[in-house]
Write a structure and sequence with these properties.
Elements lengths: L1 H35 L44 E9 L13 H18 L3 E7 L6 E8 L2 H13 L1 H9 L4 E9 L8
Antiparallel strand pairs: 1-3, 1-4, 2-3
Length: about 190
C-alpha cells in the first residue's frame, strides 16, 4: 500500500510539475512577446490637430506613375496617384472649444462645397462614402497625375477662401487616416 501512496504522490508531483512548468513557460512566452512588441507610441500631435483637422503625418512614399524598384513591380506604369482618406468624427469633442457638429455636419461640409473646392483646385474626387461599419467615419478617394500634382492641389485647396468658409462653418472634431496607392498593372482603374 505504501508503494501505491508513494507512486500516487510521485505521479501527482510529476503532473503538478508539468502544470507549473507549462504555466511558467506560458508566462515567460507572454512576457517575451510583450517585450518583443512594446506598446505603440502615440504619434506626436500635429500643430493642426488642435485646430480640428486631426492630420496625420503624410507619407513620402512614391505615388503615381513609374514607381521604381520592388515597389513598382506590380504597379501600372501609367497609374495615377490615389489617396484614400478616412475621417472619423470624435463625438466626445463636439462642443469642446470651437468644435461643433458630428458626422452629419461633416457630410454637409462635403455636400455644400468641399468636393467642388477640390475639383476647382485640380484634385479629382472619385468617390465619397459613408462607412457603414463605423457610422462616424466618412471615406473618400482622390486621384492626381502624380505626387507633385497632389502637393500642388492640396496647397491650392488649403488657400481657397471657400474651404476656409466651410471649415469655419463645419468645424468638426475628427481624426484622419490617409493611405497613398498606385494602381496595379492589372487594375481596371488607373
Amino acid at each position: 500500500m505504501n508503494r501505491f501512496v508513494i507512486a500516487g504522490l510521485t505521479l501527482s508531483g510529476f503532473v503538478l510539475g508539468i502544470a507549473v512548468t507549462s504555466l511558467s513557460f506560458r508566462l515567460t512566452s507572454t512576457q517575451q512577446v510583450v517585450l518583443a512588441a512594446p506598446a505603440p507610441q502615440a504619434p506626436a500631435p500635429s500643430p493642426d490637430a488642435a485646430k480640428g483637422k486631426g492630420k496625420q503625418a503624410v507619407s513620402t512614399a512614391p505615388c503615381g506613375p513609374n514607381i521604381q524598384g520592388d515597389l513598382g513591380k506590380n504597379t501600372a506604369k501609367d497609374s495615377r496617384c490615389f489617396e484614400l482618406r478616412m475621417y472619423t468624427v470624435d463625438p466626445s469633442r463636439d462642443g469642446v472649444g470651437q468644435f461643433k457638429g458630428g458626422i452629419n455636419e461633416l457630410h454637409k461640409r462635403f455636400r455644400e462645397g468641399e468636393v467642388e473646392v477640390f475639383k476647382k483646385n485640380g484634385v479629382d474626387v472619385l468617390a465619397v462614402w459613408q462607412n457603414l461599419d463605423d457610422p462616424n467615419t466618412l471615406v473618400y478617394l482622390l486621384a492626381y497625375k502624380d505626387r507633385a500634382a497632389r502637393e500642388a492641389g492640396w496647397a491650392a485647396f488649403g488657400a481657397d477662401p471657400k474651404w476656409t468658409e466651410l471649415r469655419t462653418k463645419y468645424f468638426v472634431p475628427l481624426t484622419s487616416k490617409i493611405t497613398f496607392m498606385s494602381a496595379t498593372d492589372y487594375s481596371p482603374l488607373k
